[in-house]
Specification:
By secondary structure, the chain is an alpha/beta fold. The protein folds into three domains: 213 residues, Rossmann fold (3-Layer(aba) Sandwich); 158 residues, 3-Layer(aba) Sandwich (Rossmann fold), CATH 3.40.50.2020; 41 residues, no CATH class. It has 13 helices and 18 strands. The strands form five sheets. It has a seven-stranded mixed β-sheet, sandwiched between helices. Strands 1-4-7-8-9 form a five-stranded parallel β-sheet, with helices on both faces. Strands 2-3 form a two-stranded antiparallel ribbon. Helix 2 packs across helix 9 and helix 5 packs parallel to helix 11. The longest helix has 16 residues.
Length: 428
């Protein structure tokens, strides 16, 4: 049974409500619009239940804010009732574009500030919402997931804190080390990955890409990203290679041991396009060095796929490497804040995650299996088949025009006369 059929036959755990913190208002609005579209085009066989009151709505977003005092202190404020609801709170702890004033001085919000605001909203909702779920795409303090010498365990501590406040489920993406969930073994914790969204965005941006062993290779920039590269190489049926980092452990620069050199393990990349996959671009120095070394080994085009494009040191180096031909495309998701400047870069490709997030939230609200969401293999295989037939990119839009379905700018589908087709395209 498909997930769409399960949604039609299953009661929600409670009426759905969605909070998009100020850090991710735009993404939250897109997620809300998709959920509205899903439920408009779903026929519920058990809709007589009281749990289906307001099931179909034009808006699931809750009006809330975290106003601040002159000292920089703040409070969480819900401007409408959330009593008895299944509450999903979305936050982007990496949004550095938001500011507040402390004693007349302007401060940019840090991950610590965003996490504190999240806790304030949870505190305002505790005891009122039937269930509280947190959607935190970039897991707070996920890079500090293990202890070396006399160090803090910040990520584990944060998860324990959310658990103690009554959070039932935590949803994140591409956790730096998913084993950190061991800190809360009795609570829900899901870490999703976006390989399908990467491939979809890449095929649209690079229509002449040939995904076979003779023309393409997958590269892991370090040993930590191996599992991502292995998955991509297996599902595409291509070879892979790996760089490993030699670090100077006697020195600490900007909180980490500097990389002395990248050593390559793998087959010859000469003449082949390569896809580098990793969880994040922070400063980007390591990723760019890998791209340069691949080009020095006579690789063809270099495509970078990363879940979180943080670009902590700006775009100057990326611009330089693009102009020199070291990189061709950088594909990253909109799960974290992306500066407007980035959208103007010729190498940037966005992998939109809003529909994916909406599917996750809708499934969790109904307490149905999300196995199909967590395993995108079948969807990637279907995408490859379309691509092989020359149907990638414009295939769907052409088909839509032919049968007369109306498609909104955000990709949502409207027209109940073509419900069967719509449902097929909403399959998880």
């Amino acid at each position: 049974m498909s997930n769409i059929e399960l949604l039609e036959k299953t009661l929600p755990a409670a009426p759905l409500k969605l909070i998009a913190m100020e850090s991710c208002r735009e993404l939250g609005q897109k997620v809300n619009d998709y959920i509205v579209s899903f439920r408009e085009n779903t026929i519920n066989e058990v809709s007589e239940s009281s749990l289906y009151v307001n099931y179909k709505s034009n808006n699931y977003l809750v009006d809330c804010c975290c106003p601040r005092f002159g000292t920089g202190e703040a409070k969480g404020l819900l401007k409408e009732t959330i009593r008895g609801t299944d509450l999903f709170i979305m936050t982007d702890v990496c949004n550095h574009n938001l500011t507040y004033t402390v004693n007349g001085h302007l401060n940019h919000m840090s991950p610590d500030d965003h996490f504190q605001d999240l806790k304030r909203i949870i505190s305002a909702a505790t005891g009122k919402a039937k269930r509280i779920n947190v959607i935190m795409p970039f897991l707070y303090e996920s890079r500090q997931h293990k202890r070396t010498k006399r160090e803090s365990l910040d990520c584990a501590l944060a998860l324990e804190e959310l658990n103690a406040m009554g959070v039932s489920n935590i949803v994140t993406f591409d956790a730096h080390d998913p084993r950190v969930q061991n800190a809360i073994p009795l609570s829900g914790f899901d870490s999703f990955n976006p390989p399908y969204q990467f491939m979809k965005a890449l095929f649209r941006a690079v229509p002449d890409l040939i995904p076979d062993k003779d023309h393409l290779m997958i590269i892991s920039p370090d040993e930590g990203a191996m599992h991502r590269a292995v998955y991509f190489s297996n599902i595409l049926g291509v070879d892979m290679g790996m760089f490993y980092k030699r670090r100077d452990y006697s020195t600490i620069i900007n909180g980490k041991n500097p990389i002395v050199a990248h050593e390559f393990l793998g087959d010859d990349v000469a003449g082949k396009d390569v896809i580098i996959v990793d969880d994040m671009i922070a400063s980007g120095g390591s990723m760019l060095d890998v791209a340069k070394q691949l080009k020095e080994r006579k690789a063809g085009r270099v495509f970078v796929c990363t879940t979180f494009g943080l670009f902590t040191e700006g775009f100057e180096k990326f611009d330089e490497y693009y102009e020199k031909g070291y990189i061709n495309k950088v594909i990253t998701t909109n799960l974290t804040y992306l500066p407007a400047e980035l959208y103007k870069k010729p190498y940037f490709v966005k992998a939109d995650m809003s529909k994916f997030l909406a599917l996750i939230i809708d499934s969790l609200n109904h307490d149905i299996t999300i196995g199909a969401v967590m395993n995108p293999t079948d969807k990637i295989h279907a995408l490859l088949e379309k691509y092989a037939r020359g149907e990638a990119g414009e295939f769907l839009s052409v088909y839509i025009r032919n049968i007369g379905i109306l498609q909104a700018a955000d990709g949502s589908y409207y027209n109940n006369h073509y419900l069967d087709f719509t449902k097929k395209n909403l399959e998880l």
